[in-house]
Amino acid sequence: MTAPILSLKGINKSFGPIDVLHDINIEVQAGEVLCLLGDNGAGKSTVIRILSGVHKPTSGVMAMDGVPVSFANPRSASDHGIATVHQFGGTFPLMSIGRSFFVGREPTKGIWPFKVYDRKKANEIAVKAVREFGITRIDNGDRLVGGLSGGERQALAIARAVHFGARVLILDEPTAALGVKEAAHVLRIVLEARRRGIAVIFITHQVTHALTVGDHFAVLIRGAKAADFRKGEKSREEITDLMAGGEAMAELEAEIAAFGEAG
Fold it and tell me: 10 Å Cβ neighbour count for 13?
């Protein structure tokens, strides 16, 4: 079996005297969706920041294709093929779709020193890339990003990351602020990224969404990995109970028992 495209082994993270992550072991293969589950404060955000180069782990080893790596900053993580798309897409509402797609990497035309931004080329590439992810309503790269729906902005950010060579796509709560129809489209985009052989780390606290797209699941509780399992090994109820630290089912059983006694 080939080495995982990305792995964390024995990762710990402390901020001064406060221990935030405890011995985290996670791995994801190319063409696989790893769902990182946990309630608020579980440690998901700290894992994201380590993977994206914002924080360095206090101890432990991060590796890509079996080779240890260390990220000095987010640019270093990006250079290794790791792209992070946060909840609101990382796009720019007052920019056109084409500009937002290429921000910092704009195509140009002409001869130096008279090179100028090639708006037509940028718009054509951006629209084509987004439409390949199923957003057929977008047909004009001059439209402002601010006029797009939340799901369309997520699609734009994901298409951009894939276009610029992402091998690992980290999605931070991509469906949290979306309605049912919009969330469903984002989930289809996740599956399309997986079909293209990209490793997807899908961070969420919404179990139903995770079960829709996930191949591999890890549950964090108070900075530690509480469970690691494959698709089909646990039910939605079992996962929800795990995320609550085993307390949810106990509370429900107690309520049922109390109701029975009252009857």
Answer: 22
Q: Residue 52, SS3?
A: coil
Give Cα 157 distance to the centre of its chain.
Answer: 11
- Please compute Rg for the chain using Cα positions: 21
Distance (Å, whole) CA 140 – CA 27: 39
Multiple choice CATH, 6-91+165-231, 3.40.50.720, 3.40.50.300, 3.40.50.10490, 3.40.190.170: 3.40.50.300
Q: Is-contact 51 232, C-beta < 8 A?
A: no
**Contact at 8 Å (CB) between 60 and 12?**
yes
pLDDT in tens, the chain (263 residues): 688 999 999 999 999 899 999 999 999 999 999 999 988 888 999 999 999 999 999 999 999 999 999 999 999 999 999 999 987 667 888 999 999 999 889 999 988 888 899 999 999 999 999 998 888 888 899 999 999 888 888 889 999 999 999 999 999 999 887 888 888 989 999 999 999 999 999 999 899 999 999 999 999 998 999 999 999 999 999 998 888 774 444 444 444 555 555 55
Distance CA 34, CA 102 (A): 28
